Amino acid sequence: MEENLKDKTGKDLNEWKTILQESGLQKHGEMLALLKGTHGVTHGFANFIALKYREADAGSQADDDLVAAQYAKKEALKPIYEALHAALVKFGSDVEVAPKKAAVSFRRKRQFALVQPSTKTRVDLGLKFNDRPHEGRLEPSGPFGSMCTHRVQLTDVAEVDDELIALIRDAYNEAG
Known about the structure:
Elements: H1 2-9, H2 13-23, H3 28-38, H4 43-53, H5 61-70, H6 78-88, E1 96-99, E2 104-107, E3 111-117, E4 123-127, E5 139-140, E6 150-154, H7 162-174
Antiparallel strand pairs: 1-2, 2-3, 3-4, 4-6, 5-6
Helix pairs in contact: 2-4, 3-4
């Protein structure tokens, strides 16, 4: 993202850091509001800039700790999460990865995917579509309720295949 920052936003990371420093803002949400509202930066770049300014980028200890805790007793499932994460962040610079206590949310303008180790043997991938039937691998959302419209149950990293990535990309595209 940093390589494209100046081209996409008109300023490099150091220039954006100076703007944030001069603003005196401390909270991440306030920084996002400033960057998006006042400067017209897209959410993905605003999030990147604010995280880098706060030196808490997506690989931060806090995020790593949340993900590690999710898989602490489910280590065999972590390769599924890692394969999904690696694929989803390649969709675009606007993908926001938001680890929570029980799951990791992937957002664009809205959440399009949610990855949750639901049992010791299964990861549930929640997807949000505007209007897509429940068929094939796409089951009703189950435990996700209204957060997602569909669920795919995964028990092996081999299930993170081209077909699944295409489904997730469809959800990503609809979220934009």
